[in-house]
Amino acid sequence: MHRRICTNYGKCALAESHEDFSHEKKPMTYCPLCDKRLSEVVPPSRSSASNIVFALFTTVVLVLLFAAAVGKKWIDSSQQGATAAELKEAPKAILRLTDSNTIQDSLGPAMAEAFLKAQGASDVQILPGTDPQERMVQGVLPGDRLPSAITIAAHGSATAVTTLTADAWDIGMSSRKLKPDEAGKLGASGDSHSALSEDVLGLDGIAVIVNSSNPLKELRKDTIKQIFTGKITDWSKVGSMRGAIQVYARDDQSAIADSFKTMVLAGTPVASSAQRFEDSNALSQAVSSDPNGIGFVSLPLIHRAKSIAISDRGADALKPTWLTVATEEYPLSRRLFLYTPSTPHNAFTQKFVEFALSRQGQEVVAANGFVAQTVARESQPVSDLAPGEYQELTRNAERLSLDFRFVNGDLDLDNKAQQDLDRVVSLVADQGRAKKQILLFGFTDDTGVTAEVDQAVSLNRARIVEGLFLQRGVKPADVQGFGSALPVAPNDTAEGREKNRRVEIWIQK
To answer: Which end of the chain is more exposed for a tag (fewer CB within 10 A), N or C?
Structure first.
């Protein structure tokens, strides 16, 4: 129904009171008070009123949301500016390494730094990680705006190997070989034909060190065991000066302690009286400051202490030198390994391994105090116990800094020897006529039925290496087998027999 109301607002009281004249019996056209013509209006329905209220509410909400959006946009833009600044510096991880404490001390970060530079990266730097045992090496690769990083976590070889079972690594760097049970967990046998590839990064020697004032020159390996397990406690018992022996040893989490326990202690724990160290540098410093001290460190960490020669059953005493470690004849020499998936998903994994094994990468190994696999010629005195023909052939020859070894006594070369073949060929190519002067001398353990059998087996090993050289266009000048002569390790252990099965390579002057 239409309402009749006066709209003479401000002048008529009936207009102000919204008086409705539509209910009058007699239709009215003019306001009875001010005589102004009445207006007809349509009153809003209930739904219309609700719509008006809803519209007003919606308007208010939209205004509030708009205000909030404007405020959020302002805040977000501020935050985005900060995030952009952070992202500008935040590196992207391109490679994850897990390694032993021995490698992490210097070699791991140095290799990662050299690798990034070889890829053309700029602003390369080594940075500390969130943990004291972690490092991050970053640089800006060509065509990138943001830096790329190689992360390195070094919590010991045991930890490095453990992480191989998780998807938290690209390369495992270890200062010991995978144990059979560890390889089993990975479904691998530790060679390049399995689900896991193994490469030798370089070599290291565990040096037994004493104070420089100690007159001691050499010890048998079993005597060293007695000292470190507390069976021998005075220097006079081993032909040195009188005084209580103070043993210094690394903590059980370190790879070098694990290797020392395996190679020297045969699993027997270190004496409880020994002082233990988490850092080999600190241990070396302690021995160099203690006239009665004895300890063990990696070859690069001897510092101001004195290394002693070590002998084993049936083998001559040898000091840890570049040549004795390179040929792995020093009783406490060990390999440094790279473990990777045989089919890596990360494109940088294989690139890193190839770089580490290249001549440039091996220069990094040497620069950090380890023994690189770069082949060199060295003069070496020959034992008076060597066969006469061996003495005669080596009289005017130099020994190369490697021995060819075989897989578990098989007739197949191990993975290091396979790579060493190409290194020798490169050396021969560089030196021209030297390829006609190569001498190959085979040796074996003494488990053969007769000396004649041992000699035949050793010659067969040398012939195998000769055949591989012939495939590469290099013809050795002489190939001989000397049976079980000149053992470099005991023949009553599997590890010793494996070391004795070898082929030496010499070059005539």
So the answer is: N
